[in-house]
Amino acid sequence: RAKSAGRNTHKFYSDTMRIHSLHRLDIENELREAMNTKQFQLYYQPKVDLKSWSVVGVEALIRWKHPERGWISPSEFIPIAEESGLIVPIGTWVLKEACRQIKAWRNTALRDLRVSVNISSEQIYTDDLLLTVKDAMASNTIGAESLELEITESLLMRDVDSTVQTLNEFKELGLAISIDDFGTGYSSLSYLTRFPIDTLKIDQSFVRDLHIDNDDAAICAAILAMARKLNLNVVAEGVEIDEQLQFLRGHGCNQIQGYLFSKPLPPAELLALIGDNVRKSAYA
Ligand code: C2E
Ligand code: MG
Ligand code: MG
Ligand code: MG
Protein backbone atom coordinates (compact mmCIF):
# COMPACT_ATOMS: atom_id res chain seq x y z
CA ARG A 1 0.00 0.00 0.00
CA ALA A 2 2.79 2.37 0.89
CA LYS A 3 4.42 1.56 -2.42
CA SER A 4 1.39 2.43 -4.51
CA ALA A 5 0.85 5.58 -2.48
CA GLY A 6 4.46 6.45 -3.21
CA ARG A 7 3.96 5.83 -6.91
CA ASN A 8 0.81 7.92 -6.91
CA THR A 9 2.63 10.67 -5.11
CA HIS A 10 5.44 10.50 -7.64
CA LYS A 11 2.99 10.59 -10.53
CA PHE A 12 1.20 13.52 -8.94
CA TYR A 13 4.42 15.48 -8.59
CA SER A 14 5.68 14.83 -12.09
CA ASP A 15 2.30 15.83 -13.56
CA THR A 16 2.37 19.02 -11.53
CA MET A 17 5.90 19.76 -12.62
CA ARG A 18 5.06 19.06 -16.24
CA ILE A 19 2.09 21.40 -16.09
CA HIS A 20 4.26 23.94 -14.33
CA SER A 21 7.00 23.78 -16.96
CA LEU A 22 4.49 23.82 -19.83
CA HIS A 23 3.04 26.96 -18.33
CA ARG A 24 6.52 28.45 -18.06
CA LEU A 25 7.24 27.68 -21.69
CA ASP A 26 3.91 29.23 -22.69
CA ILE A 27 4.70 32.34 -20.73
CA GLU A 28 8.18 32.52 -22.22
CA ASN A 29 6.81 32.36 -25.79
CA GLU A 30 4.08 34.78 -24.93
CA LEU A 31 6.58 37.23 -23.42
CA ARG A 32 8.30 37.37 -26.82
CA GLU A 33 4.93 37.94 -28.49
CA ALA A 34 4.10 40.61 -25.88
CA MET A 35 7.30 42.50 -26.72
CA ASN A 36 6.41 42.50 -30.43
CA THR A 37 2.75 43.44 -30.04
CA LYS A 38 3.04 46.11 -27.34
CA GLN A 39 1.20 44.33 -24.55
CA PHE A 40 3.31 45.96 -21.81
CA GLN A 41 2.56 49.23 -20.04
CA LEU A 42 4.14 51.12 -17.19
CA TYR A 43 2.13 52.16 -14.14
CA TYR A 44 3.54 54.65 -11.66
CA GLN A 45 3.25 54.58 -7.87
CA PRO A 46 3.86 57.81 -5.91
CA LYS A 47 6.50 58.16 -3.19
CA VAL A 48 5.35 60.71 -0.65
CA ASP A 49 7.66 62.86 1.45
CA LEU A 50 6.61 62.74 5.11
CA LYS A 51 7.68 66.30 5.96
CA SER A 52 5.90 68.11 3.14
CA TRP A 53 3.34 65.40 2.25
CA SER A 54 4.14 65.98 -1.38
CA VAL A 55 4.88 63.45 -4.09
CA VAL A 56 8.61 63.56 -4.73
CA GLY A 57 8.94 60.62 -7.06
CA VAL A 58 7.23 57.64 -8.61
CA GLU A 59 8.24 54.03 -9.15
CA ALA A 60 7.66 52.64 -12.65
CA LEU A 61 6.06 49.17 -12.42
CA ILE A 62 5.52 47.04 -15.49
CA ARG A 63 2.04 45.76 -16.32
CA TRP A 64 1.18 43.02 -18.81
CA LYS A 65 -2.27 42.68 -20.28
CA HIS A 66 -2.39 39.40 -22.16
CA PRO A 67 -5.08 39.29 -24.91
CA GLU A 68 -6.63 36.05 -23.55
CA ARG A 69 -5.28 35.57 -20.02
CA GLY A 70 -5.87 39.17 -18.95
CA TRP A 71 -3.56 40.85 -16.43
CA ILE A 72 -0.51 38.80 -15.48
CA SER A 73 1.34 39.91 -12.35
CA PRO A 74 5.02 40.90 -12.57
CA SER A 75 5.77 38.55 -9.67
CA GLU A 76 4.64 35.76 -12.02
CA PHE A 77 6.39 36.75 -15.24
CA ILE A 78 9.47 38.74 -14.14
CA PRO A 79 11.18 35.63 -12.67
CA ILE A 80 10.53 33.76 -15.94
CA ALA A 81 11.82 36.73 -17.93
CA GLU A 82 14.94 36.74 -15.74
CA GLU A 83 15.65 33.01 -16.19
CA SER A 84 15.10 33.11 -19.94
CA GLY A 85 17.18 36.24 -20.49
CA LEU A 86 14.13 38.08 -21.88
CA ILE A 87 14.44 40.56 -19.01
CA VAL A 88 17.23 42.26 -20.96
CA PRO A 89 15.06 43.43 -23.92
CA ILE A 90 12.08 43.93 -21.58
CA GLY A 91 14.25 45.99 -19.21
CA THR A 92 15.48 48.08 -22.13
CA TRP A 93 11.87 48.73 -23.13
CA VAL A 94 11.07 49.77 -19.52
CA LEU A 95 13.96 52.27 -19.48
CA LYS A 96 13.02 53.76 -22.87
CA GLU A 97 9.33 53.98 -21.98
CA ALA A 98 10.08 55.61 -18.60
CA CYS A 99 12.28 58.22 -20.31
CA ARG A 100 9.64 58.82 -23.00
CA GLN A 101 7.10 59.38 -20.21
CA ILE A 102 9.39 61.77 -18.31
CA LYS A 103 9.69 63.80 -21.50
CA ALA A 104 5.91 63.76 -22.02
CA TRP A 105 5.43 65.07 -18.45
CA ARG A 106 7.72 68.02 -19.05
CA ASN A 107 4.89 70.52 -19.51
CA THR A 108 2.68 69.17 -16.72
CA ALA A 109 2.48 69.21 -12.91
CA LEU A 110 4.59 66.02 -12.98
CA ARG A 111 7.68 67.70 -14.44
CA ASP A 112 9.82 67.50 -11.30
CA LEU A 113 9.14 63.89 -10.40
CA ARG A 114 12.06 61.53 -10.23
CA VAL A 115 11.12 58.21 -11.81
CA SER A 116 12.65 55.03 -10.42
CA VAL A 117 13.06 51.93 -12.55
CA ASN A 118 13.59 48.37 -11.27
CA ILE A 119 16.76 46.74 -12.59
CA SER A 120 17.25 42.96 -12.56
CA SER A 121 20.67 41.44 -12.01
CA GLU A 122 20.68 39.96 -15.53
CA GLN A 123 20.59 43.49 -16.87
CA ILE A 124 23.68 44.56 -14.95
CA TYR A 125 25.65 41.41 -15.66
CA THR A 126 24.87 40.62 -19.30
CA ASP A 127 23.79 43.84 -20.96
CA ASP A 128 25.62 47.08 -21.49
CA LEU A 129 23.25 48.77 -19.11
CA LEU A 130 25.13 52.05 -18.90
CA LEU A 131 24.87 52.52 -22.66
CA THR A 132 21.17 51.58 -22.66
CA VAL A 133 20.46 54.15 -19.94
CA LYS A 134 22.51 56.88 -21.66
CA ASP A 135 20.71 56.19 -24.96
CA ALA A 136 17.25 56.30 -23.38
CA MET A 137 18.12 59.58 -21.64
CA ALA A 138 19.75 61.20 -24.67
CA SER A 139 17.02 60.36 -27.17
CA ASN A 140 14.45 61.97 -24.85
CA THR A 141 16.75 64.77 -23.64
CA ILE A 142 16.26 63.67 -20.03
CA GLY A 143 18.55 64.87 -17.24
CA ALA A 144 20.01 62.37 -14.78
CA GLU A 145 18.12 64.08 -11.92
CA SER A 146 14.91 62.59 -13.38
CA LEU A 147 16.01 58.98 -13.07
CA GLU A 148 16.70 56.52 -10.27
CA LEU A 149 17.61 52.85 -10.37
CA GLU A 150 16.17 50.31 -7.89
CA ILE A 151 18.30 47.26 -7.35
CA THR A 152 18.02 44.41 -4.86
CA GLU A 153 20.55 43.41 -2.22
CA SER A 154 21.20 40.00 -3.76
CA LEU A 155 22.21 41.69 -7.01
CA LEU A 156 24.89 43.69 -5.20
CA MET A 157 26.51 40.62 -3.71
CA ARG A 158 26.86 38.58 -6.89
CA ASP A 159 30.02 40.21 -8.15
CA VAL A 160 30.92 42.97 -5.71
CA ASP A 161 33.85 44.56 -7.56
CA SER A 162 32.21 44.87 -10.95
CA THR A 163 28.92 46.03 -9.40
CA VAL A 164 30.68 48.76 -7.40
CA GLN A 165 32.27 49.91 -10.64
CA THR A 166 29.02 49.89 -12.63
CA LEU A 167 27.12 51.73 -9.90
CA ASN A 168 29.89 54.33 -9.61
CA GLU A 169 29.50 55.00 -13.33
CA PHE A 170 25.78 55.62 -12.80
CA LYS A 171 26.54 57.93 -9.88
CA GLU A 172 29.02 59.90 -12.00
CA LEU A 173 26.24 60.31 -14.55
CA GLY A 174 24.08 61.79 -11.74
CA LEU A 175 21.52 59.03 -11.26
CA ALA A 176 20.18 58.11 -7.82
CA ILE A 177 20.41 54.51 -6.61
CA SER A 178 18.14 52.71 -4.15
CA ILE A 179 18.29 49.30 -2.55
CA ASP A 180 14.93 47.61 -3.05
CA ASP A 181 13.36 45.08 -0.64
CA PHE A 182 15.95 46.05 1.97
CA GLY A 183 16.28 43.57 4.83
CA THR A 184 15.42 40.45 2.83
CA GLY A 185 18.77 39.84 1.15
CA TYR A 186 20.80 38.16 3.92
CA SER A 187 23.88 40.12 2.95
CA SER A 188 26.61 41.90 4.86
CA LEU A 189 25.83 45.39 6.11
CA SER A 190 29.32 46.51 5.16
CA TYR A 191 28.17 46.89 1.55
CA LEU A 192 26.09 49.90 2.63
CA THR A 193 29.29 51.92 2.79
CA ARG A 194 31.00 50.22 -0.16
CA PHE A 195 28.30 50.87 -2.73
CA PRO A 196 27.25 54.38 -3.80
CA ILE A 197 23.71 54.15 -2.41
CA ASP A 198 21.26 57.02 -1.83
CA THR A 199 18.17 55.27 -0.51
CA LEU A 200 17.04 52.15 1.34
CA LYS A 201 13.55 50.86 0.62
CA ILE A 202 12.33 48.90 3.66
CA ASP A 203 10.72 45.72 2.37
CA GLN A 204 6.96 45.58 2.76
CA SER A 205 7.19 42.32 4.73
CA PHE A 206 8.52 44.38 7.70
CA VAL A 207 5.98 47.16 7.24
CA ARG A 208 2.86 45.01 6.90
CA ASP A 209 2.46 44.13 10.60
CA LEU A 210 4.69 46.70 12.27
CA HIS A 211 1.71 48.19 14.16
CA ILE A 212 0.88 44.80 15.75
CA ASP A 213 4.21 42.92 15.76
CA ASN A 214 6.96 44.15 18.09
CA ASP A 215 9.69 42.36 16.17
CA ASP A 216 8.76 44.01 12.88
CA ALA A 217 8.53 47.37 14.62
CA ALA A 218 12.02 46.82 16.09
CA ILE A 219 13.46 45.96 12.68
CA CYS A 220 11.94 49.06 11.06
CA ALA A 221 13.16 51.29 13.91
CA ALA A 222 16.68 49.79 13.67
CA ILE A 223 16.85 50.27 9.88
CA LEU A 224 15.71 53.89 10.28
CA ALA A 225 18.26 54.61 13.04
CA MET A 226 21.08 53.04 11.03
CA ALA A 227 20.10 54.86 7.83
CA ARG A 228 20.11 58.20 9.66
CA LYS A 229 23.66 57.61 10.91
CA LEU A 230 24.80 56.57 7.44
CA ASN A 231 23.02 59.55 5.87
CA LEU A 232 20.77 57.41 3.71
CA ASN A 233 17.26 58.31 2.63
CA VAL A 234 14.60 55.74 3.61
CA VAL A 235 11.40 54.83 1.76
CA ALA A 236 8.98 52.44 3.49
CA GLU A 237 7.20 50.17 1.01
CA GLY A 238 3.66 48.80 1.32
CA VAL A 239 2.28 51.39 3.76
CA GLU A 240 -1.47 50.77 3.89
CA ILE A 241 -2.77 52.22 7.14
CA ASP A 242 -2.39 55.28 9.31
CA GLU A 243 -0.82 53.45 12.31
CA GLN A 244 2.06 52.34 10.09
CA LEU A 245 2.50 55.89 8.82
CA GLN A 246 2.54 57.35 12.35
CA PHE A 247 5.15 54.85 13.54
CA LEU A 248 7.38 55.46 10.52
CA ARG A 249 7.05 59.23 10.82
CA GLY A 250 7.89 59.03 14.54
CA HIS A 251 11.07 57.11 13.73
CA GLY A 252 12.27 59.59 11.11
CA CYS A 253 11.30 57.81 7.90
CA ASN A 254 11.69 60.15 4.91
CA GLN A 255 9.15 58.82 2.43
CA ILE A 256 6.42 56.24 2.09
CA GLN A 257 5.05 54.31 -0.85
CA GLY A 258 1.86 52.31 -0.52
CA TYR A 259 -1.88 51.99 -0.96
CA LEU A 260 -2.44 54.47 1.91
CA PHE A 261 -1.56 57.25 -0.51
CA SER A 262 -2.05 55.54 -3.87
CA LYS A 263 -1.74 52.26 -5.71
CA PRO A 264 0.31 52.22 -8.94
CA LEU A 265 -1.57 54.23 -11.61
CA PRO A 266 -1.54 54.64 -15.38
CA PRO A 267 -0.08 58.04 -16.41
CA ALA A 268 -3.42 59.83 -16.96
CA GLU A 269 -4.69 58.86 -13.50
CA LEU A 270 -1.40 59.87 -11.89
CA LEU A 271 -1.66 63.28 -13.50
CA ALA A 272 -5.25 63.65 -12.26
CA LEU A 273 -4.24 62.63 -8.72
CA ILE A 274 -1.21 64.87 -8.43
CA GLY A 275 -2.72 67.77 -10.32
CA ASP A 276 -5.85 67.79 -8.14
CA ASN A 277 -5.50 66.00 -4.88
CA VAL A 278 -2.12 66.42 -3.27
CA ARG A 279 -2.84 69.72 -1.55
CA LYS A 280 -6.28 68.58 -0.43
CA SER A 281 -4.97 65.47 1.28
CA ALA A 282 -6.21 64.77 4.79
CA TYR A 283 -2.60 64.20 5.83
CA ALA A 284 -1.23 67.51 4.57
P1 C2E B 1 8.97 46.04 -5.99
O1 C2E B 1 9.94 46.72 -6.88
O2 C2E B 1 9.36 45.85 -4.57
O3 C2E B 1 7.63 46.89 -6.13
C1 C2E B 1 6.70 47.08 -5.08
C2 C2E B 1 5.50 46.17 -5.22
O4 C2E B 1 4.64 46.36 -4.11
C3 C2E B 1 4.65 46.46 -6.46
O5 C2E B 1 4.10 45.21 -6.90
C4 C2E B 1 3.54 47.34 -5.89
O6 C2E B 1 2.35 47.33 -6.66
C5 C2E B 1 3.32 46.67 -4.55
N1 C2E B 1 2.73 47.56 -3.56
C6 C2E B 1 2.86 48.91 -3.46
N2 C2E B 1 2.20 49.41 -2.40
C7 C2E B 1 1.61 48.35 -1.78
C8 C2E B 1 0.79 48.22 -0.61
O7 C2E B 1 0.45 49.19 0.08
N3 C2E B 1 0.38 46.96 -0.29
C9 C2E B 1 0.74 45.89 -1.03
N4 C2E B 1 0.29 44.69 -0.63
N5 C2E B 1 1.53 45.96 -2.14
C10 C2E B 1 1.95 47.19 -2.51
P2 C2E B 1 4.08 44.80 -8.44
O8 C2E B 1 3.83 45.99 -9.29
O9 C2E B 1 3.17 43.63 -8.56
O10 C2E B 1 5.57 44.33 -8.72
C11 C2E B 1 6.13 43.25 -8.05
C12 C2E B 1 7.62 43.16 -8.28
O11 C2E B 1 7.89 42.89 -9.66
C13 C2E B 1 8.37 44.46 -7.97
O12 C2E B 1 8.60 44.59 -6.58
C14 C2E B 1 9.63 44.24 -8.78
O13 C2E B 1 10.52 43.40 -8.06
C15 C2E B 1 9.12 43.49 -9.98
N6 C2E B 1 8.92 44.46 -11.10
C16 C2E B 1 7.87 45.25 -11.38
N7 C2E B 1 8.09 45.99 -12.49
C17 C2E B 1 9.35 45.68 -12.90
C18 C2E B 1 10.18 46.12 -13.99
O14 C2E B 1 9.84 47.01 -14.81
N8 C2E B 1 11.43 45.53 -14.10
C19 C2E B 1 11.86 44.60 -13.21
N9 C2E B 1 13.09 44.08 -13.37
N10 C2E B 1 11.12 44.17 -12.17
C20 C2E B 1 9.88 44.70 -12.02
MG1 MG C 1 11.05 48.38 -6.74
MG1 MG D 1 10.33 46.29 -3.05
MG1 MG E 1 10.15 43.00 -4.85
UniProtKB/TrEMBL annotation:
The chain holds residues 409 to 692 of 692 of the full protein. Residues 24-278 form the EAL domain. It comes from Woeseia oceani. One of its GO terms (biological process) is cellular response to nitric oxide. GO terms for molecular function: cyclic-guanylate-specific phosphodiesterase activity. Keywords: c-di-GMP, Phosphoprotein. The keyword Membrane does not apply. This is cyclic-guanylate-specific phosphodiesterase.
